[in-house]
Amino acid sequence: AGQVQEIDNPQLGDAEEDSELAKPGEKEGRRNSMQKQSLVWKNTFWQGDIDSFHDDVIRRHQQFIPFLNPRTPGKLTPYTVVLHGPAGVGKTTLAKKCMLDWTDCNLSPTVRYAFYLSCKELSRMGPCSFAELISKDWPELQDDIPSILAQAQRILFVVDGLDELKVPPGALIQDICGDWEQQKPVPVLLGSLLKRKMLPKATLLVTTRPRALRDLQLLVQQPIYIRVEGFLESDRRAYFLRHFGDEDQAMRAFELMRSNAALFQLGSAPAVCGIVCTTLKLQMEKGEDPAPTCLTSTGLFLRFLCSQFPQGAQLWGALRALSLLAAQGLWAQMSVLHGEDLESAGVQESDLRLFLDRDILRQDRVSKGCYSFIHLSFQQFLTALFYALEKEEEDRDGHAWDIGDVQKLLSREERLKNPDLIQVGRFLFGLANEKRVTELEATFGCRMSPEIKQELLRCKANLHANKPLSMTDLKEVLCCLYESQEEELAKVVVAPLKKISINLTNTSEMMHCSFSLKQCRDLEKVSLQVAKGVFLENYVDFEPDIEFERCTYVTLPSWAQQDLRSLRLWTDFCSLFSSNSNLKFLEVKQSFLSDSSVRILCDHITRSTCHLQKVEIKNVSPDTAYRDFCLAFIGKRTLTHLTLEGHIEWERTMLLLLCDLLRNHKCNLQYLRLGGHCATSEQWVDFFYVLKANQSLRHLHLSASVLLDEGAKLLYKTMTHPKHFLQMLSLENCRLTEASCKDLAAVLVVSQQLTHLCLAKNPIGDTGVKFLCEGLSYPECKLQALVLQQCSITKRGCRYLSEALQEACSLTNLDLSLNQIARGLWILCQALENPNCNLKHLRLKTYETNLEIKKLLEEVKEKNPKLTIDCNASGATAPPCCDFFC
């Protein structure tokens, strides 16, 4: 339904009582004139617009339009209402219906006026006065304009299609005026009206596509935004039922459209719903399988176009003229074309007659010289066809059309200026499909360009440029490849990809990834994010009497049917991990999964054909996902690196599963990172005990966990065991104190394996440093890297470290960043200049503003050229502690 957004309470100001300023004869004349206008407006609705479906859509949205339901009887409030939504969902139809209701004599005892300003037409006009602008189509009102404008509170101005107004940036806010008799450029007059400099008490109704909303916000004051959504799912279902007549056929066709999220979204436009119904019904009547047609929008539109004409019709010239007109309009950002546009393209009306007869192209009933396409998406499809058709000599040498080439069409710069080109590029890839080419050539007797595939490959050559694609660019590439349904083309395009990062926000993106990435045999790493709403199982309550696994598809509620479709696509996507032997690294982060989707992914991970070596699971829901992943990793021989981070409420269960993983004779895990756990000391006991028996684990990171001194003591006891193999230990932000460091010092002396230690973000203080330095002072200590970032260390702690470094301890890397060591740096520098100091890398708090310290550090570097001092580790710019281990 229509939705009201950002509704501000407008200042009512001095709303005037309606007063009849006109003389009795003039009043009746104006009423007759407005009734005449109403008849014309009714005739401007497209054929089929005024039926029960459109009436329902209009009524659903009209309830949100406040000026049709005045708050104060007898008064009119100057509202600015903005109807926004995608192309073809009924914004113009709704606006015209509002005009009819506004001027309806039966609804209002006084004469009210409505003026329709089409931005498509305004773009073609030269300078004029505002009075001339609104009376140009109604010369009989010209003498009455002064008295009409004097009653601005009775006037409704509809500004239709603001997104199609072709003006330079800033033109609508410059030189605005309030004089309706003054000659001005049309954009200035329109801007003056929208900013309420002109006729501030008039009511404004603006329609636009979403892309113009940002600019509109700079113009209008206290607007009420209403999103027009066109056909809802229930409307689409009812439309299919009425079109097909047969319920089984209708529901089969409806489900096919719904299986393609992009096509289903387009179906909110009644015209697209009509195209889908017409196409699929014809196929069913012929006994053909309609399923392949709905895989892509290109396939659907191509089949619709070809179904309108008999095969071998030899309509190449007519098709070329239509596609040229579509391309010229799209590049000029025009949905309505005029006679002069046809003339500039060298197109005759006779060339278009076949398409006019079939309602593919439509002629305005009032302005016979105006043409528009059945829907913007079909204009985009025909524009792609313009590029795909083989050009004749007259095309190459004839008219100088303002149409970019393929390279320009697919360039980011042009798409930013004209977003409608994005879908054209996708359709163009769709027309690179060999089967579709054959069908087009057989129907229209045309020849498709043999160079089009090479053109497309050249445009996607930045995949080979050794520079990472942005996620937006990658999604667009994958979308285009899916639209082509050409596996060989996909193989060539994605061949260079070694790693990808993808954020799945809908099922369409899942389909696109599945199709293309299966062809990417050299892919090594996938970083995956799944947005909330892709899977619904854990976020929408099931009906209590429904068993999800057993009920049939048709008995499921709508949301559950959607979830089943998502899971089927997810299954296909996850097969990537068990079919690509080169894929070694999977990262799943910030993801909203479901129980079923996790089980599907884990099923593919456990297969022998899955060769994942490194898996990182970070901040995923539901919590049970971590349990399922742990189960999947038990006995996974190829797995060497595992990260599990996030808020987990069942630590004991997960730790027990990790124990099973580490105990398994097939375990080759070398790196384990656990973060965000709240396990108690007792719950850590079994886990630390298993570490004694495991001979593969070398790196253990327990970050942001409530380990505490008591839990750490259990770990240290394990590390004193002669068979422990840990080389790197990180206990970052585990709430450890100086007491923990006393036990840790003993480990430093006994352990012959531990070379890297991180205690960052633990308040161990100077006393903790003292204990650590006691351990470092023993020649048996092998520690090379020590991270003490943000550990509450002061000057006194620096003294202990200085003494240890001067005694030739094993440390080569030391991180003291984010500590207030102050004058302790001078003490530390004494050790750095000592020849016994083995330190090669020191990380400190930033001292860019302290010239004295900068000079001191420069002197140290001169005396110890082998030492690297990093002073850029402060605040938000501080690098991760784990980087210091490398």
UniProtKB/TrEMBL annotation:
What's the encoding gene here? NLRP7
Q: Which SMART domains match?
A: LRR_RI
**Any stretches that span the bilayer, and where are they?**
none
List UniProt keywords, sorted A-Z.
ATP-binding, Leucine-rich repeat, Nucleotide-binding, Repeat
One Pfam entry for this protein is WHD_NOD2
Q: Share an example GO biological-process annotation for this protein.
A: regulation of inflammatory response
A GO MF term: ATP binding
What family does the Swiss-Prot or TrEMBL record give for this protein?
Belongs to the NLRP family.
Report whether Transcription shows up as a keyword of the record: no
InterPro entries for this protein:
Leu-rich_rpt, LRR_dom_sf, NACHT_NTPase, NLRP_HD2, NLRP_innate_immun_reg, NOD1/2_WH, P-loop_NTPase
Region annotation (Disordered) maps to 1-35
Q: What is this protein called?
A: NLR family pyrin domain containing 7
Which stretches make up the NACHT domain?
79-389
Which segments does the entry list as coiled coil?
none
Which spans does this entry mark as compositional bias, Basic and acidic residues? 20-31
Q: Which GO terms describe its cellular component?
A: cytoplasm
Give yes or no: UniProt keyword ATP-binding. yes
